[in-house]
Design goal:
The chain is of the alpha/beta class. Helices cover about 35% and strands about 20% of the residues. It contains 18 helices and 23 strands. It has a 9-stranded mixed sheet, sandwiched between helices. It has a 7-stranded parallel sheet with strand order 5-2-6-1-7-10-11, with helices on both faces. The N and C termini lie far apart (about 55 Å). Bound molecules: glutamine. Glutamine binds next to strand 19. The site of glutamine has 10 residues, from strand 19.
Length: about 525
C-alpha cells in the first residue's frame, strides 16, 4: 500500500487545537493497526525553537535524536506512543538554511533560486522523506499558522503540488476552523468558516473534511449550510466541541466519524479501532476519585505552556492512581526562606522545574530546603536537580557559596559546572547536550524501584552537570548518586535515602510520559504525595 498523506490546515484563528486534532486522528488510526507519524511544518524563520524563550514559544520538546522541536510533537508522542525525530519538525528557517547551503555548494549552478520551485521543492522533499522511509502507512502533516498568513503560502503551495505528485487518492486535506457562537444573535455563525475555505481555495486547496471547533453542538441546519457553501459532503463536516480533557478528543472525533471519513477517502485497509486502554484512562482523568496538591516551582509559571510535558505527565501519573493532580503554580522569583512555608502550605509534593539563567534560583533553593527538611516528596528536574545539589552542598555539607557556574563563574564551590565539551561552544543553536542517553540505576534506589529496570534511556537538554570533584563530599553528607551515564560516568540522578521521596534527575522524564506508558518517576512521585494524604 502506498503511503498516504493527510494535510491539516487551520483557519480563522490560531489556538484551535490543530495539534490535538492531528494527535487524535493519529491515535484513532494507530488504534486501527496502522503505522502513523505526524509532522509539523512551522512557518517561522528560526531554524528550530531551541533559541526562543518560553514566553515566546512555550516548551521546547526534545526528541531521542536530540532535535529541539515544537511542543506539538509532545502531543503526537503522548497520543500515538511512537517516538518522533528531527524529521517530524520542519521550519521555514530550516528549509531556507538547507536551500542556501545547497546554493553555496553549487547545487543550482546557473539557475536563479526561487520560492517556487526551490523552496516548495525542499518542503515537498521533507514531507516525502518521512513517507518514503517506508516506516509508515499514514503521514499526517500539520501546517502551522493560519491560512492566509503570508509566511504560510509556500507550505500550502507545496501541499497543492504534492496532491498531484503522489496522487489525489493518496492524500486528504482537513481544514480546522472556528464556528463562533454569537451571544447577541443567539446563534452559531458560519461566515468565518466560509471565508477561510475561500482563502484556501484562492491558493489552490479544496479541503476534503472540515473540522469545526464550536462551543455548542452543530445542529443539522448549520452542518448543511457549511457543507453547501464550502463544497464538502455533509458527513465531512465534523464538529469538535470543547472537551473536558484533550484526551477526550480522540473519542469525540471517533463519534463524529473523522477516522472513518479519512479511511474512506484514502482507501485504507484496516480493522476497527481498539481503544481498550484509552477509554478507562479518559474516565480516570475526567472522573478522578481524589485530588492531590503539588507545587510546581518555576520562573515561567504565568505561562503554563512552558511546562507542557510536565503538566501532561502529571495527568498520566494521576490517572494511574485515579487521582487528579492539582498543580499550584509557584513563581520562584517571589519565594524566599521566610515565605516558603506559607506559600507551599498544604501541598503534598514539590517539583522544582527546569530552566536557564540565574533569575529565581534563590527561591528554588528555598523550595528544595523546605521539601528536604519537612519530608515533603520532592522531584527536581534538570535545573531542579542542580538546585537540589546546590542546596544540599550549602546546607548539609557546609560548602558556603556552593553554586553552579551558570550563576557564579568564580564561586568557591562549583558543585554544578559547565560540561567539558561545552566550554568551547559559542553557537547557541542546537549545541547543548541534547537527546537520549543511557543511565544505569543503582541497586536499592527509588529510581530503580520506580522503573523496575537497571538501565534506562532518557532525554537531555542542558549545558551544565554535576561536578564529580564534589561527589565524595556530597555522598559523605548523605546524598546518594543513583543514576550514572555508563559511558562517561556523568551523574544523572541524586536521591536522599532517608527522605520519604527525594529525587533529582538531570534529564527530562516528562518528555517520555505517554498515555499508554505513564512515566515511572512521575507515577512514583504522585504515589508518594498521595501517601502523605493517607498518613
Ligand atoms: N540551565 C541548566 C543547564 O543548562 C539546566 C537546563 C534545564 O533545566 N533544561 O544545565
Amino acid at each position: 500500500m502506498a503511503t498516504k498523506y493527510v494535510f491539516v490546515t487551520g483557519g480563522v484563528t490560531s489556538s484551535l487545537g490543530k495539534g490535538i486534532v492531528c494527535a487524535s486522528l493519529g491515535r484513532l488510526l494507530t488504534a486501527r493497526g496502522l503505522k502513523v507519524t505526524i509532522q509539523k511544518l512551522d512557518p517561522y524563520i528560526n531554524v528550530d525553537p531551541g533559541t526562543m524563550n518560553p514566553y515566546e514559544h512555550g516548551e521546547v520538546y526534545v526528541t531521542d535524536d536530540g532535535a529541539e522541536t515544537d511542543l506539538d510533537l509532545g502531543h503526537y508522542e503522548r497520543f500515538i506512543d511512537l517516538p518522533t525525530s528531527q524529521r517530524n519538525n520542519v521550519t521555514t528557517g530550516r528549509i531556507y538554511f538547507d536551500v542556501i547551503t545547497k546554493e553555496r555548494k553549487g547545487a543550482y549552478l546557473g539557475r536563479t533560486v526561487q520560492v517556487v520551485p526551490h523552496i516548495t521543492d525542499e518542503i515537498k522533499s521533507k514531507v516525502l522523506g518521512l513517507g518514503e522511509s517506508g516506516d509508515y502507512d499514514v503521514v499526517i502533516v500539520e501546517i502551522g499558522g493560519t491560512v492566509g498568513d503570508i509566511e504560510g503560502l509556500p507550505y500550502v503551495e507545496a501541499v497543492r503540488q504534492l496532491r498531484y505528485d503522489v496522487g489525489r487518492k493518496n492524500t486528504c486535506c482537513i481544514h480546522l476552523t472556528l464556528v463562533p457562537f454569537l451571544k447577541a444573535a443567539g446563534e452559531l455563525k458560519t461566515k468565518p468558516t466560509q471565508h477561510s475555505v475561500k482563502t484556501l481555495l484562492e491558493i489552490g486547496l479544496q479541503p476534503d473534511i472540515l473540522v469545526c471547533r464550536a462551543e455548542v453542538p452543530l445542529e443539522a441546519g448549520i452542518r448543511r449550510k457549511i457543507a453547501q457553501f464550502c463544497n464538502v459532503d455533509l458527513e465531512d463536516v465534523i464538529a469538535s466541541i470543547d472537551a473536558r480533557s484533550i484526551y477526550e478528543v480522540p473519542l469525540m472525533m471517533q463519534e463524529e466519524g473523522l477516522d472513518t471519513r479519512v479511511i474512506e477517502k484514502l482507501g485504507l485497509e484496516c480493522g476497527p479501532a481498539d481503544l481498550r486502554n484509552w477509554i478507562p484512562f479518559v474516565d480516570a482523568v475526567v472522573k478522578p476519585d481524589r485530588t492531590v496538591d503539588i507545587a510546581l516551582v518555576g520562573k515561567y509559571v504565568e505561562h503554563h505552556d512552558a511546562y507542557m510535558s510536565i503538566v501532561e505527565a502529571f495527568i498520566h501519573a494521576g490517572a494511574v492512581n485515579r487521582a487528579k493532580v492539582n498543580l499550584r503554580w509557584v513563581q520562584s522569583d517571589d519565594l524566599d526562606d521566610r515565605n516558603v512555608a506559607k506559600t507551599l502550605e498544604g501541598v503534598q509534593g514539590i517539583l522544582v522545574a527546569p530552566g536557564f539563567g540565574g533569575r529565581g534560583i534563590s527561591g528554588k533553593l528555598a523550595a528544595v530546603r523546605h521539601a528536604r527538611t519537612n519530608g515533603i516528596p520532592f522531584f527536581g528536574i534538570c535545573l531542579g536537580m542542580q538546585c537540589a545539589v546546590i542546596e544540599f552542598a550549602r546546607t548539609v555539607c557546609g560548602l558556603d557559596g556552593a553554586n553552579s557556574t551558570e550563576f557564579d563563574e568564580s564561586g568557591p564551590h562549583p558543585v554544578i559546572d559547565i560540561m567539558a565539551e561545552q566550554k568551547t561552544v559559542t553557537d547557541k543553536g542546537g549545541t547543548m547536550r541534547l537527546g537520549a542517553y543511557t543511565c544505569d540505576l543503582a541497586e536499592g534506589s527509588r529510581a530503580r524501584a520506580a522503573y523496575g529496570e537497571t538501565r534506562i534511556s532518557e532525554r537531555h537538554r542542558h549545558r551544565y552537570e554535576f561536578n564529580d570533584n564534589y561527589r565524595a563530599r556530597l555522598e559523605a553528607g548523605g546524598l546518594r548518586i543513583t543514576g550514572l551515564n555508563p559511558d562517561r560516568g556523568l551523574v544523572e540522578i541524586v536521591e536522599i535515602p532517608e527522605h520519604p521521596w527525594f529525587v533529582g534527575v538531570q534529564f527530562h522524564p516528562e518528555l517520555k510520559s505517554t498515555v499508554t506508558r505513564p512515566h515511572p518517576l512521575f507515577v512514583g512521585f504522585v504515589r508518594a504525595a498521595l501517601k502523605t494524604l493517607d498518613a
